[in-house]
Specification:
236 residues; alpha+beta; Phosphorylase Kinase, domain 1; 6 helices; 13 strands; binds cytidine-5'-monophosphate; SAICAR_synt_PurC; ATP binding; SAICAR_synthetase; SAICAR_synt/ADE2_N
Amino acid sequence: MEKRQQLYAGKAKSVYATDDADYVVLSFRDDTSAFDGEKVEQLNRKGEVNNKFNAFIMQTLSGAGIATHFEKLLNETESLVKRMQMIPVECVVRNVASGSLVRRLGVEDGMSLTPPVFEFFLKNDALHDPMVNEYHIATFGWATEAQVQKMKQLTFEVNTVLKQLFADAGMILVDYKLEFGIFGGEVILGDEFSPDGCRLWDAQTRKKLDKDRFRQGLGGVIEAYEEVAKRIGVTL
Ligand code: C5P
């Protein structure tokens, strides 16, 4: 497999073509951004930590029967993934109220949510990723009804697997964001799962172990990511 030209550079990852049309290289950079790219910093080791963290999670999900784009780790900061047609919506599940839910609805931060809340957001930085519903997705043709149902089903299946994984390691999976794409006509999990795209709190102290440390200027961002990785058994 040969790495070819860069196809796309996002805020934290870049995508490169390969000599196989069905695969691309996902390259995890140290760039860390928040607030739709308004706050950007380089955090030493983040690319490597997130690449290995994501590989571990994707393999765990795959072992639980959830199809993902992940193929294999290539090196410290790069993974080989299936080239998908991305669906431009983000799927968020919340087990505990925090972040934008608290700002929008005025509910208490830390309130346990039963049943968990599911939300769709449009992937669009210029519009600040507005919340959308299934009617918007159908009307504007971002996904079919069957694809919407599949994304919801898979996002909740991920919740079952990962809530337990983190609970066993003394953490609460507060919320997370997933992105899906289409490969061979099927909806499969894409993008990444790392502390950049979820909230994780220590179960005892409720210490934040995720990107909120960066957003809120709490410091110790990578140290927290490494601690989570260590607790769940990721080899760094
Ligand atoms: O900001 P909000 O509370 O809506 O975020 C919910 C979850 O989705 C958080 O875990 C956050 O890190 C993640 N998220 C993300 N990328 C976005 C928006 C939210 O990873 N563009």
